[in-house]
């Protein structure tokens, strides 16, 4: 008997736990009220049924039925199908949500009454498949849109069109694949168009096919975390937003776009909110992006670009162009910022193959504090002269104004370049291409810097400081390290190889009265005519010069008696690039395969005593040189 | 026998926290139907509640409200057909066989019962 009672009790307990829901079906929309919440449902005037504050016109109700379906508060489920859509609204928010369904076009007006004091945030979950449909969402309070296995194309606009101006969390649900495609020739700004700020999350995947504008567009910021997003096609940018773009994790792939991969603009140029930085921040995740159109960028910010982590593989293959509006040439760049670029971490592989193409380009400062950066450019010089674009100009560009030409460069900053750490490896092989260039002051405090370039390896328009780090520069067609101001060396290990003849390893602007100032560090500079400290430079660490040449893979050392002060190893690729320097007709040729320079060699290191003789050994050759602190 | 009857009832009406839906019309008249498989439609100025007990039709003009209830109140929704019913107390004791549910309601003392129709369906019945 006890056993029987126990069975009955268990059965009753189990059954009592079942959900109980009253569903009001109005066309393709069902409002689901949990029985426990429904309360008194009132009929008024034989025309209206009111449940939980939601008035239903009785004439529009197809049926009311009760089932055991679970209802989660604050949810709206939208299931797309061919030519139709089904919407289910949780009863507790029925009074705040007004769906309109026409075929597979679902438009939802979220009441302005939605807020912290009423129901709070509503989650809209989209699933199903339709070849012509849309989910449109209005409102003035933040919302979540979940993509839970949605394949949706739209023949008239954006498949997801969010006019809600607040924070929209778009969650790509774990384990789901989702696909969106919009129409061509439409007026939508993106395949996903959002007038608020968009936070992309979840552990699912989403592919975008944008045939009118951008792949993903938000009028305000976009943040991305965890999810996998592939923009496989876009007429304009892959991702376009204002305020800022922040990627914390996840995977973003962008290809076949007509403009930039990711572009961020200021929302307001005159009255900016604190978050309106126009910046791109990559803190983690993986970005694979390629752009091919002229003068396009993989990451383009009106503000700054900050990279603290992640793996970025970015490539540009377009060339330069003449911008009639700005009256200057524009060139492609893997990363471009109108303000600063800062790299604190992450792994970057940047490849640019078009004329004038750059790895990193900013109007402000470039600061590198960490990370691994590899840059390869192979484009030449883009020139605009007399109304004609020259995509790979080979003539003399010395007398062409800067606005009318654009050279390929690994790094180009209109402001200062400061390297405090990390590893950066730059290779430029195109005509007139430089490695790292600052239009202001260039400073290396630490880190590893390797540059193999055709034109200048490291170049500054103002002073150049090296206080630490390991710097190796091989320039096959011009100077290794070239400053239009002074070169200050206070620390670090520096190997700088110029092209030979007059192109040297260290080139301060002697012609304008600048010089080299050495107070520390170890330097091997090889080239035509290295700059040396002037008598008034204040240089304190002595140096020696010889006419010895250096050979790839060999060692160069300096010794006093049996004491070797330091030894350098010449890079194995020195003189082996075979690249020619055609940018300056009549200029020096490359080092040539296995060749060596016929120019001079400058060595400095701690321990040298001015006036003392030292033995310099380069490979199997030796020479004696006397240390001095100025020429 | 009592065990199976009880479990059968539990699997139907008692599966929900609210086994009944009660409609109130003008004058305070309440009409109760089983919530299980209840479907409500509107036609010709009437609300029609389709349930396992049959159809309950109420004039919309007179209808004031409806709500979920845990107990049957007023007159149970009319079971379609006039088949005999067997009535059991909540303790599982058979109270008798009646020609219809209405007859059972009219003859039984106040209390809560389980009614088994000739089609095999069971429901919980409150007689007031």
Could you list some keywords that capture this structure?
heterodimer; A: 631 residues; mainly beta; 16-stranded mixed β-sheet; 2 helices; 60 strands; B: mainly beta; four-stranded antiparallel β-sheet; elongated; disordered N terminus
What's the gist of this structure?
The complex is a heterodimer of chains A (631) and B (128). Chain A has 631 residues and is mainly beta.
Describe what you observe in this structure.
The complex is a heterodimer of chains A (631) and B (128). With 631 residues, chain A is mainly beta. Among the domains of chain A are: 18-139, no CATH class; 494-631, no CATH class. Chain A has two helices and 60 strands. In chain A, the strands form six sheets. Chain A has a 22-stranded parallel barrel. A 16-stranded mixed sheet of chain A has the order 9-10-12-14-17-20-23-26-29-34-37-43-46-49-51-53, with no helix packed on it. In chain A, strand 9 and strand 10 form a beta hairpin. Chain A is elongated. Chain B is mainly beta. Chain B has one domain (2-127). A four-stranded mixed sheet of chain B has the order 6-1-2-7, with no helix packed on it. A four-stranded antiparallel sheet of chain B has the order 9-8-10-11, sandwiched between helices. The longest helix of chain B is centred in the N-terminal third of the chain and has 10 residues, at 2-11. Mean pLDDT of chain B is 76; it is low at 1-14 and 74-81.
List the helices and strands and how they pair.
The complex is a heterodimer of chains A (631) and B (128).
Chain A: H1 2-16, E1 21-26, E2 29-34, H2 35-38, E3 41-44, E4 48-51, E5 54-57, E6 63-67, E7 75-81, E8 84-90, E9 97-102, E10 105-110, E11 122-130, E12 134-138, E13 143-153, E14 160-162, E15 167-172, E16 177-181, E17 190-194, E18 197-201, E19 205-210, E20 214-218, E21 222-224, E22 228-234, E23 239-242, E24 244-247, E25 251-254, E26 262-265, E27 279-282, E28 286-291, E29 297-301, E30 305-307, E31 311-316, E32 321-323, E33 328-330, E34 333-337, E35 341-343, E36 347-352, E37 358-362, E38 366-368, E39 372-377, E40 381-385, E41 388-393, E42 405-406, E43 409-413, E44 417-419, E45 423-428, E46 434-438, E47 442-444, E48 448-453, E49 458-460, E50 464-475, E51 481-483, E52 487-497, E53 506-507, E54 516-527, E55 543-546, E56 555-560, E57 563-569, E58 600-604, E59 613-618, E60 621-626
Parallel strand pairs in A: 2-8, 7-11, 10-12, 11-13, 12-14, 13-15, 13-16, 14-17, 15-18, 16-19, 17-20, 18-21, 19-22, 20-23, 21-24, 22-25, 23-26, 24-27, 25-28, 26-29, 27-30, 28-31, 29-34, 30-35, 31-36, 34-37, 35-38, 36-39, 37-43, 38-44, 39-45, 43-46, 44-47, 45-48, 46-49, 47-50, 48-50, 49-51, 50-52, 51-53, ...
Antiparallel strand pairs in A: 1-2, 1-6, 3-4, 4-5, 7-8, 9-10, 32-33, 40-41, 40-42, 54-58, 55-58, 56-57, 56-59, 59-60
Chain B: H1 2-11, E1 20-25, E2 29-34, E3 39-43, E4 46-51, E5 54-59, E6 63-69, E7 75-76, E8 85-89, E9 94-98, H2 101-107, E10 111-117, E11 122-127
Parallel strand pairs in B: 2-7
Antiparallel strand pairs in B: 1-2, 1-6, 3-4, 4-5, 8-9, 8-10, 10-11
